[in-house]
Amino acid sequence: MALKMTNTEVDGASVVALAGRIVLGEESQAVREKFKSMIAEGKKKIVLNMEKIEYIDSAGLGILVAAHVCANVQGASVKLSNLGRKFQEILQITRLITVFDVCSTEAAAVASFSKMTDQAAAEKPSVTLAGTVERIIEPPYPGLPEKAEIAIEGADDLYQEIRIDNTLTDKHGDIVRLKEGAEVEVTVEAEPEATGSKSAIAS
Predict the structure, then answer these.
(1) How buried is 173 (Cβ within 10 angstroms: 0-12 exposed, 13-18 middle, 19+ buried)?
(2) 26-40 and 58-73 are packed helices; what angle lies between their axes, rounded to 10 degrees?
(3) Do the bridges between strand 147-152 and strand 127-137 make them parallel or antiparallel, or are there none, so unpaired?
(4) What is the DSSP letter of 190?
(5) Which of 22, 45, 141, 190 could be a cystine partner for 60, CB 3.0 to 4.6 Å?
(6) What is the CATH number of the domain that holds 50?
(7) Cα–Cα distance, 63 to 21 (Å, whole number)
């Protein structure tokens, strides 16, 4: 059976369902070209559904390993899902099971990308600093939001003053505006000792 590849987008992930054989020749070359095109298109979350793969030889395994390495170099991630018993045995015998990120189902593979993103966000360092609204800056043109200039206590010279659009929302979703002299807390994405970031959120 010739190799067939069906590409779909699921929750931001590119899922490629493969059916047939991945062997030396046209089949392995087709997988190589598929990966090259996906990486060139900027795909970062790739799932290979192997449920209908009937056979894979050493050349096919080599292509998958090369694709895995290429994806990592480009900042992408590849996951294998729905491995058949024989394919899983091959990965275990060759010890490639430790190289690939394997999920039992396609849905689990797609969902794992969100977990990775959430974990990375949770681990992102940040520090909260006290600040005072120094002044309110009127917009130069009608229709633009006014800005609030906030002086940050303890920040380095670059970020002692932060300007934000003065159109914040409270916990109810209502728009609120800061006034001169208001004391605020600013959370910046940085190590505690750095106290400087271009991204700030006032609360």
Answers:
(1) exposed
(2) 10
(3) antiparallel
(4) S
(5) 22
(6) 3.30.750.24
(7) 13
Give the total residue count for the chain: 203
pLDDT tens, position by position, 82-101? 998 888 898 889 888 888 89
Residue tagged 């609360």 (tokens): 203
The tokens for 49 are 């559904």
Pick from 122, 140, 157: which residue ends a domain?
122
Q: Hey, is 31 helix, strand or coil? A: helix
For residue range 119-152, list pLDDT tens digits in order.
Answer: 555 555 666 777 888 889 888 777 677 888 888 7
Domain with 182 in it: 127-202
Quick check: 157 pLDDT over 90?
no
CA-CA distance, 27 to 19, in Å (whole number)?
11
Residues 131 and 101 in one domain: no
